[in-house]
Amino acid sequence: MSETRQMDKPAPAKAQPSLAKASGSMAIATLASRITGFLSRIVLVVVVGSGVITDSYQVGMTIPLQVYELLLGGVLTSIIVPLLVRAEKEDADGGEAYIQRLLTMAPVILLAATVVMMLAAPLLTTIYVDGSSGKAHPELATAFAYLLLPEIVFFGLGALFTAILNSRGVFGLPAWAPVFNNLVVLVTLGVYLLVPGDPTINPLAMSDPKLLVLGIGTTLGIVVQALVVLPAMRRAGIRFKWRWGWDRRLTEFGGLALWMVFYVVLGLAGVIVVTRIATAAVPGSMTAYNFAWQLFQLPYGILGFSLLTAIMPRMSKAAADNDVRGVVADLSLGSRLLTTMLLPLSAGMTVLGSQLGVALFFYGANTLDKAQQIGTTLAVSAFGLVPYAITMMQLRVFYAMKDARTPAMLQLLTVAVKIGLSVLCVQVLDEHTMVLGLAFVNSMSFLVGAVAGNIWLRVRLGRLETGRLGRTFGLTVIGSLLGALSVVLVHTATLEFAPLGTSPRVIAWIVVVVGGLLGLAVAFGSMMLLKVTELNPAMSRITRLLRRR
User: Fold this and answer.
1) Residue 1's pLDDT is what?
2) Of 118, 117, 81, 116, whose CA–CA distance to 102 is shortest?
3) Of residues 510, 479, 513, the one with CA closest to residue 495
4) 17-53 burial, b if ≥16 CB within 10 A, otherwise e?
5) pTM for this one?
6) Burial class for 182, CB neighbours closer than 10 Å (0-12, 13-18, 19+)
């Protein structure tokens, strides 16, 4: 393809909101969401442990969580936002009728899909859990599935509400909505601790108080998360009205959605393989894999997702105006910002590893070994954080251009790598190290996907300012390595000078807090000295805040 070109475009109708301001405000909300979310995971381990009950709960949550990650986490939102932006720009009513048709169809489709999933719950459990190993509990996983699968309706509605609000430049309340969910889950776990029962005795009777409290309470949290944004919809001027007529763009959306369904199915295939392998390993492997994944996503969720959510409407406007150069500029800026924000954190998670697991999860019913397993699983997968974020950025570029086929093809490649290497893990690893191999493979698949996505975009758009990204990446690697070295020195000194008999939990917290803060200071300080220009907006904002004082 020829060099990137600027096509004729009309002047923008209104100024776009500051990317730094929009992503910064969302980052605060996302930070609160992630903190409360992780607190709920820690309480789950403390109250329930990381054995067969938690593994079964994780399996029951797999399908709704997959919907969350693939829909609310970006795919459905990324498809709808460009279409909504175009409707607002092209329609005399600002896209109101188009929104109402979406709001009419979505609940019906989601409810039908949920009913089918619930009828197939025993079959789904058989697919996800290898009952022949004798280490899993398929009946308990099925019982949880019956209680948790209704979340699909509200995950889908929440994704649609969020997309509509984002297209109108409203980011605040949707970013805070998960906090309400997490608070409901924390209350649920408190009630779980108080009620009697043993979910493992006869789970399919669906009468055990602990089973019902944990399942219904978790689902209620998702209901609250979806519905809490309705006041923001009203303030944004969005009025619900049943509108069953057809719009030509619904055909366009349907075509994009079919590719999205293919994308989702491919993702589920990868999850099924990993889940079957993990549940056949030592008890707690599935919990370790999922909790390490949630820790892995924490930096991306706070920083990366906020940035991508803010940049998506802006990129969609550039694509709608056929502004190829603007799309490439947004891709380059987003990729460089993701690298500078996430690479130092990736290096930190790699060296903190098991200490982070002990600090967060060595409480209550959870043992030291299980806590270390979660942390080590995170450490071996942390290298995939930046490739994962870059891949999410690349997908949004394709969606902004109304191309859902290419992301599905990239997903096919990524899942093929994931499944192939996961099966290889079964052949070369024992049941105790299996979860480490699965986590490593997951991150490796992201690396392959990021490289393939870059090649695909180069063919599609021409030059991608790869040189600027390479410079930023190289300088950030140097700063990140220096920061990681600082963490290692703190860890070594703590082990050397800690009094004999000091609790592993105390040592872990010292390393995580002191080493983490020092490591970040060294990493970002080194990057400033190396003149990583992508840090300038953040440093200017900090300087202004200090001057006000």
Assistant:
1) 40
2) 81
3) 510
4) eebeebbbbbbebbbbbbebbbbbbbbbbbbbbbbbb
5) 0.72
6) buried
Identify the bridge partners of residue 323 per DSSP, sorted by sequence position. 6
Placement of tokens 């954080």 in the chain: 385
Burial tier of 96 (Cβ tally within 10 Å: 0-12, 13-18, 19+)? middle
Identify residue 194 by its one-letter amino acid code: L
pLDDT at 229 over 70: yes
Contact (Cβ atoms closer than 8 angstroms) between residue 128 and residue 64: no
CA atoms 237, 242, 245, 251: torsion sign: positive
Three-state DSSP class for residue 6? strand
Q: Are 449 and 413 in contact (CB under 8 A)?
A: yes
CA dihedral 90→11→26→401, nearest 10 degrees, is 60
Tokens of 238: 């969005």
CA pair distance 129, 59, nearest whole angstrom: 8
Q: Are 78 and 402 in contact (CB under 8 A)?
A: no
- Where residue 465 falls (left for φ over 0; alpha for ψ -120 to 50; beta otherwise) is left
- 423 Cβ contact list (under 8 Å, min separation 6): 273
The length of the chain, given as a count of residues: 549
Which of 296, 302, 331, 346 lies closest to 479, judged by CA? Answer: 346
> Structure tokens of 154?
């509200």
How many Å apart are CA 173 and CA 179, to the nearest integer?
10
CA distance 545 to 19: 18
Q: Taking a C-beta distance cutoff of 8 angstroms, is the pair 100, 160 a contact?
A: no
Q: How crowded is residue 272: how many other Cβ atoms within 10 Å of its Cβ?
A: 18
Tokens of 48: 């329930």
| Two tokens, residue 479 | 């700063």
185 exposure class (CB count in 10 Å sphere: 0-12, 13-18, 19+):
buried
Q: How far apart are CA 523 and CA 478, in angstroms?
A: 8
Q: Which two tokens stand for residue 203?
A: 């789970």
What is d(CA 22, CA 172) in angstroms, rounded to the nearest whole number? 9
Q: How does DSSP classify residue 323?
A: B
- Give the model confidence (pLDDT) of 270-309 as tens digits: 988 998 898 888 888 888 898 899 889 888 877 777 777 7
Q: 322: buried, middle or exposed (CB in 10 Å: 19+, 13-18, 0-12)?
A: middle
Cα distance between residue 357 and residue 505, in whole Å: 10
Q: Which of 510, 205, 270 minimizes the C-alpha distance to 411?
A: 270
Stated as kind and residue range, the H or E segment containing 322 is none
Q: What is the DSSP letter of 365?
A: T
> Tens of pLDDT along 462-498?
888 888 889 999 999 999 999 999 999 999 999 989 8
Assess contact for 185 and 222: CB atoms under 8 A.
no
SS (H, E, C) 150-172: CHHHHHHHHHHHHHHHHHCCCCH
Residue 541: CA count within 13 A, CB half-sphere: 9
